[in-house]
Write a structure and sequence with these properties.
There is one protein chain. This protein is α/β, with parallel strands linked by helices. The relative contact order is 0.16. It has one domain: Luciferase-like domain (TIM Barrel, Alpha-Beta Barrel). The strands form two sheets. An eight-stranded parallel β-barrel has the order 1-2-3-5-8-9-10-11. A two-stranded antiparallel ribbon has the order 6-7. It has twelve helices and eleven strands. It is globular, with a radius of gyration of 19 Å.
Amino acid sequence: MLRISITLSGLSRLFADDLAAVVAAAAAADEAGIDQIAVPDHLAIGPHLERYPYGAFPLPPEEPWLEPLTLLAAIAGATRRIRLATAVLVAPLRPALLLAKTAATLDVLSGGRLDLGVGLGWHREEFAASGVPFSARAARLDDQLRACRALWTGEPVSFRSETVAFAELRSVPRPLQPGGPPIWFGMAATPRNAARIAALGTGWMPVGLEREAIARGVEGLRRAFAAAGRDPAELGVRANVPVARDARGRPDLEATLAELPRLRAAGVTVAAFALARFARRREELAPLFARLAAARSA
């Protein structure tokens, strides 16, 4: 069955007067039966949004971006069953030891509900302000995630790479999920990235791709899983559902939902909806969540 994910982006439209109310919205999604809540990431926004690699940057520079792992911790305390995801966390901006500890803590406090979605990032100003080399972010991500996997064992471990090194460290508590939270990658499915995902990850989060391109990416990833000795059926794919619009140019939810069977046929396992695109007022959230939850069997 196709799972349904809600992305908490564009918060100013619904929560400009009370950002803390997003936690209550997540609780309502949990109650309605939505499968996953996802939070995107930016530590800061600089002036060069023309560098955004997926077309026009979709939000104004003054848009609020709540820190994802902090927000998900608050949501964890207000929910019972919904999966908690970052989609995507600009992971290279966080030190490996800090990311391992924060993710493990959130997984424990949520009862094992964290999906750690990571990406390389594109906004050079964030890297410069964080003192992290932009050019080395791919290697840093690999090293960071391998270090996290080692630390999540809860045993004394040593790790050495070009960007991360430590000796005989123990990080406790361990995540509740065996092996640590599932890691999902938001990046292009190039052969190198497919091998990266097969080696370290559970799933792929394509960005800005049409259904046919997603299907091609899924085929390549399944081959990479098989080459790594893994069952290709284990691959998860979380994709944004293309927004259909009515004659007035407004999002048409029913026409948008009609795309779900085709996405599932392309290999998508989690269909993602940006919350602010389909609701203009908070009163619309409960019926929206109910309709999306009902669409899971599409």
